[in-house]
Amino acid sequence: MRYRLPAVLAVAGMLAGCAAPGDTGGVLRTLDPRLATAGDPGCREASLVSTGGVAPRRTTLAIRWTGFGNFELAYNGWVVLVDAYFDRGSLFPPLGFSAADVKRADAILLGHGHTDHISDAVSVGKRTGALVVGAPVTAEALFAQGLEARQVRTVTGRGGETFTVGPMSIEPILGRHGEPPKEVAAAFQKTLRSLTPAPSAEQLAEQKSIRSRGVNDPRVLAEGTIAYLITLDNGFRIMVRDSGGHVTDYEKAVMARIGGVDVALVAVSASYLQSLTVDQALEHMRAYKPDVYIPAHHDGALNNLWRPTEPLFQAMKAENPRLVTVSRGYREPVCFNTEVNRQRRVDGK
Q1: 263: which strand partners?
Q2: Are the C-beta atoms of residues 121 and 96 closer than 8 Å to each other?
Q3: Are 334 and 19 in contact (CB under 8 A)?
Q4: What is the per-residue DSSP string for 240-258?
Q5: Predicted pLDDT at 19
Q6: How many Å apart are CA 314 and CA 310, to the nearest integer?
């Protein structure tokens, strides 16, 4: 699709992004002059709606990243969480809230069942009454931890499973988990272990307890990783993918049908080397054709490396100069005026 300059500016202008806690009165300042603030009170604070923060206005979508593959999407009075891994332990930077603080959610979309994606799904699901969605292998872990079947929607992502959560239509799509080259991961992990303090006995016990709430099953790779296409009631589209694996034929078929999305929330590959992470990010960009790209799963433990995002941004913008890339800190809002969206431009509205 070719864009006239006003359309490009509209895409940039539809974002209201805020950052840098510590500004006077807790109000966050706009970092990028392209990200014009709409003055929406639900877009000013680094506070989750699910923990009691102010909800955005009706047509505003507020997206907040909460580490790893976690996001909160707040729109038109509804709250959807992507993944639920909040109480990560003392080996990780604090998120600024705990799982027990999450009191409100209408749905929890689980990309896959590894610990660092679902460890708090059951406790948050029970407390909020949220619908919890995931692949069969993920649902098995939820049931084993006592979440009732009436609260769980099991999906395969192979088509025909679209459902609604308030003003959001959600289509699960079978993805594929990331597969970092073993020799690369082993080399980096060996080096990191030699350069960082070993975890204490207390920290090891803490991590063991957290890991007990996740899935360690080879089925996660090819049949347990779900991407989600979320379409708002006005046509605004969000693609969510919490693992940096290759794009599947199922994803390609959906994207061939819809053409592209307004925003993609996509995990950065865990392959350490920039040559590998960049190639994977380009594959995602080419498949989803987003107007706005927001990275996920790029932070790390205190004894591990964060996954750099700037090399991805540079490579993607070299191929698509119109792409808007946005990366924020924990809980900092990125807000969209959803009335400005690709679907309306295509339809001429």
Answers
A1: 238, 292
A2: no
A3: no
A4: EE-S--PPPHHHHHHHHHH
A5: 39
A6: 6
DSSP per residue, 268-327 = PPS--SHHHHHHHHHHHHHHH-EEEEEEES----TTS-----HHHHHHHHHH-TT-EE--
- How many domains are contained in the chain? 1
Give how far Cα 107 sits from Cα of 104, 134, 257, Å.
9, 11, 26
With a cut of 80, say whether residue 30 has pLDDT above it: no
Mean pLDDT of the chain: 90
50, 120, 268 from 106: Cα distances, Å: 9, 15, 27
Expressed in angstroms, the distance from the first to the final Cα of the chain is 16
Summarised one tens digit per residue, pLDDT across range 144-172 is 999 999 999 999 999 999 999 999 999 99
> Residue 131's closest CA among 67, 97, 85, 84?
84
Six token digits for residue 347: 């339809």
pLDDT tens column, 131-148: 999 999 999 999 999 999
Alpha helices in 155-273 (DSSP H): 182-195, 201-211, 219-223, 249-258
For residue 116, which of 296, 265, 263 has the smallest C-alpha distance?
Answer: 296
* CATH number, residue 105: 3.60.15.10
Is the per-residue pLDDT at 13 higher than 60? no
With cut-offs at 50, 70 and 90, classify the pLDDT of residue 184.
Answer: very high
- C-alpha–C-alpha distance, residues 317 and 321, integer Å: 4
Task: State the Cα–Cα distance between residues 24 and 27, nearest whole angstrom.
Answer: 6
pTM: 0.91
For residues 241 and 265, the answer to whether their CB atoms sit within 8 Å is: yes
- Domain housing 246: 5-347
Residue 57 phi, psi (nearest 5): -65, 170
